[in-house]
Amino acid sequence: MLRVTSRDNSFLKALAGQANSPAPIWLMRQAGRYLPEYREVRSKVASFLDLCRTPELAAEVTLQPLRRFDLDAAIVFSDILIVPYALGQRVEFVEGEGPKLEPVRDARSVAGLSRSGATEVLAPVYETIERVTAALPKALPLIGFCGAPWTVATYMVEGGGSKEQAAARLFAYRERATFQRLIDLLVETSADYLVNQVKAGARALQIFDSWAGSLPEDEFERWCIVPTKRLVELVKARLPEIPIIGFPRGAGVLAERYARETDIDAIGCDTSMPVGWMRRLQEHLPVQGNLDPLLLVAGGEALHTRVGAILETLGQQPFIFNLGHGILPETPIEHVTRLVNLVKKS
Ligand code: CP3
Predict the structure, then answer these.
(1) Which segments of the chain are extended strands (E)?
(2) CATH architecture assignment, domain 10-344
(3) Per-residue pLDDT of the chain (346 residues; tens, 9 = 90+)
(4) How far is the CA of 79 from the centre of ligand 1 (A)?
(5) Predicted model pTM
(6) Is the Cβ atom of 326 under 6 angstroms away from ligand 1?
(7) What is the per-residue DSSP string for 169-181?
(8) 68 Cβ below 6 A of ligand 1
């Protein structure tokens, strides 16, 4: 199989530190419920995790947005919560309610987690990646991903999504040694998981730290920066060339320290980050983001104006166009087509 080099693809060029005109574009959660063809495949399996663990279907769903839109990268269809599942935690996706996990709240439940079954649970994801890379045109790279240790731990401790991650924060503040063991386990498991995704064919990686914004600065350093730095270090020790994007959603001004201290290659920025501030970060590393997903739902003049502002401020330096968070299920498909055309014609 032909390998994609950074010369062939503007997304990889941006990650290597080059500016591109037009800027490359991909969209977080670009596969999903806003596409009827996704809902069709989803209806064939009983549970969302079954979809993630059926390579033939997961590969199909990964490719769907690439057939419709002129995107510059694919992202493997899976979920960040497959890692707790691989560690033996009970994970379910309840229709209309989101993920439900058996909460991990004490030393005993942390000790009960084990990596012994992880390879078997995660193997279908690697097979999905092999299938997708075999089917993609050679100039289109596939992104592998995992959740950051802190974000995954919040779901594990809370037992699902939460507004403020209060249970996870309390656990981290009160039972530091136990929480540290959980984080260390996630760092090691995620490092192997990312390395195996690259071995299967992924050409770039993203670490989703969706709840990075819920911690005060010293705790942010302890639970976001240090574990991410260690994760990046473990991956790069085995794969020095692989570009890694960090996405510390909600980190605000702490994003600068995160970018400097974790050794990531590019930073994903959420919608709240001013583009002028992203421009400053661009002096140090490529940036990705940060269109409000609701502007893509709304469309019209508001979308047009914002896309123009983002491109004008960030387009002259290494930049990857993306949303500031995942695409929403109610997003009209025509708006996505329009967005991609706007970026490509700029
Ligand atoms: O980007 C892609 O196209 C790849 C697929 C992908 C999914 N989840 C598929 C998915 C990726 C990269 C993720 C990451 C993910 N998952 C994150 C980090 C990014 C973020 O949004 O903050 C988080 C926090 C999760 C955990 C998760 N998975 C939640 C909270 C939910 C429920 C909310 C929802 O949108 O339903 C999921 C389910 C999920 N993951 C769906 C998809 C397509 C919807 C499930 C369905 O089809 O029924």
Answers:
(1) 74-75, 91-94, 98-101, 142-147, 204-209, 244-248, 266-268, 287-291, 319-323
(2) Alpha-Beta Barrel (3.20)
(3) 455 666 689 999 999 999 999 999 999 999 999 999 999 999 999 999 999 999 999 999 999 999 999 999 999 999 999 999 999 999 999 888 999 999 999 999 999 999 999 999 999 999 999 999 999 998 999 999 999 999 999 999 999 999 999 999 999 999 999 999 999 999 999 999 999 999 999 999 999 999 999 999 999 999 999 999 999 999 999 999 999 999 999 999 999 999 999 999 999 999 999 999 999 999 999 999 999 999 999 999 999 999 999 999 999 999 999 999 999 999 999 999 999 999 999 8
(4) 6
(5) 0.97
(6) yes
(7) HHHHHH-HHHHHH
(8) no
